[in-house]
Structure formats: C-alpha cells, structure tokens
Design brief:
By secondary structure, this protein is α/β, with parallel strands linked by helices. The chain has five helices and 13 strands.
C-alpha cells in the first residue's frame, strides 16, 4: 500500500487532497469544532496543511502531536504557525516541548481529530504505520475522529484480513474524495 500510495503522481495527490479538504471544511464536524487535533502531513500522506491554515484563519485552535520516545504515546501541543517545528528522528515535523502550549490528550466534546492511515475500512479501522500511537490517543479522545484517506485505499473489511488487533480502535468518520464524510459502522464506547 505504501508503494501504491507513492506511485500516485504528485499533481493527482494534490487534486484529490484538495477535494478531501473541501469535504471536511463543508462538514458539520468542521463547523462545530473549536479545536483541531491533526497530524502534519508527511511524504505521500493526505495533505493537512490547507486544513491547518483554514483552522488558523477561523480562529480554531490547532494541536500537533509529538511522539514520546520509547513509548507508544503522543503529547499534543497547540501551534499557531509552522515556525519552530522540530524534525523527529523519523523525519516528521513536530511541535517543540512547551509547557505553556500543552493540549489535553483527551480533547473535548468540540474537538476534531484528523487521523492518518495507509488504508481504512467501512468500520473505521485503519492500517497505520505500526507504532500504535493513534490507537492510544483514540482510546481517550472525547471528540470526533476523522480518518483521512484516498478512495483507492478504502478496503472492504480489515478485521477479516487479519490486520486488526485487540488494541486497534476505529475512527468515527472517514473523509475521502468520492463521497461525503461517511459514518463508520463500528461504534466505539465512549
């Protein structure tokens, strides 16, 4: 899936990602959100920069994750620009540690989380990158989570493929270019 994602031409990725961003911006989850917890897109991931910039223009607070070394957890920090981001050992831009900008990892009822993945299914399960960081985050997150995915990487049923483990948690909605935000059929307990 990584090779297939990388094989999509950059201009085609940009076209698709702009459609996905527009669908999110026009959705009730975006309108209702006061805080956006989001990854900062890296490599061939669905781009989040346009959404981050819209959030800043709309006075929504934006939180970016920072992986905690030696664990499967992330700390979240509020950011209001791309300045000062630090490159992690994995090459991902992360916010600096700043006690005055800590975002609560559980979010709030009006928080929106944009979640990356290589693939998603209709239940909201995802194939990530194997670190378990987002599963830990989703376990306590109180807002609405949206999986960001191009349609070609929406698969039928990840559990039947044997790639979902007991600790894996689904997202609430999926955003892709070929349909409106779709509610996932798996309902996690909150």
């Amino acid at each position: 899936m990584r090779a297939a994602r990388a094989a999509i031409a950059a201009d085609e990725r940009a076209r698709i990602d702009a459609i996905i961003a527009k669908k999110i911006l026009c959705s009730w989850v975006w309108v209702d959100a006061t805080v956006v917890y989001t990854y900062l897109s890296f490599g061939c991931e669905v781009d989040t920069r346009a959404l981050i910039e819209h959030a800043w223009r709309e006075d929504k607070r934006v939180a970016l994750p920072r992986c905690v070394p030696g664990t499967r957890s992330m700390r979240w920090f509020f950011v209001d620009s791309y300045e000062g981001l630090e490159r992690s050992p994995m090459g991902i831009e992360e916010p600096p540690i700043d006690a005055t900008r800590v975002a609560p990892a559980v979010g709030c009822a009006t928080a929106l989380a944009l979640v990356p993945g290589l693939a998603f299914d209709a239940q909201g399960f995802r194939i990530g990158y194997g670190g378990g960081f987002y599963d830990g985050f989703l376990a306590g997150f109180e807002g609405i989570s949206v999986g960001m995915c191009r349609m070609q990487f929406i698969v039928d049923d990840l559990p039947s493929m044997g790639v979902v483990e007991p600790h894996d948690l689904p997202v609430d909605l999926i955003a892709c270019e070929d349909r409106e935000l779709s509610t996932c059929s798996y309902k996690r307990r909150r």
